[in-house]
User: What shape does this take?
Amino acid sequence: MKRQDGYSLIEIVLAVAILAIVMVPLVGVMIRGYSVGVDIGDQIQAVFYAQEAMESAYNVLSHQWEEVSVGEYHPDLGSGVWVLLTGSEEIGDFTRVITISNALRDADGNLSDSGDEDKKTKRVEVSVHWSDLGVTHEKEIVSYYSEVGVVEE
Assistant: This one.
C-alpha cells in the first residue's frame, strides 16, 4: 500500500470545525472585554466632567454668592476665571448640567428632600449624561454650600 503525503478533506474539515468551536467564544470574550473597557472609560470621563463642574460651581459660589440664582448652568473658563453660563453643555458624547436650588430643611433644621427652603444654603447637583449603544447612562454629584463653604455632601 502506498502512503500519501498531505491531509485528507476530512482532516481539514475537522480541524476547521475545532478551530471554529474554540474561536467563537474567544472572539465573544474579546468583544465584551473591549465593550467593558469603553464603558469604564466613559464612566471615568463622566466623573471627571462632573467633578470639574462641581469645583467650578463651588468656586463661583464662594466669590459671587449673591449673584448666583436658582437655575441650570454649565461651567465656562473662557476668560481664565470660572463663570456659570445658563443651560446645559454638550462635550462630545456627554451632556453636563449644574442645577442650583435652595436647600430644603426638615422641622429639626436638617437638610432634607422636603421641607422649608433655606435661602442661605444652596443645593448643587451636577449631572452628566451620555448614551452608549442606545442606553443612556448618568453620573450625579450633589453637594450643599452655604456662604461659608460646604455644609454636607
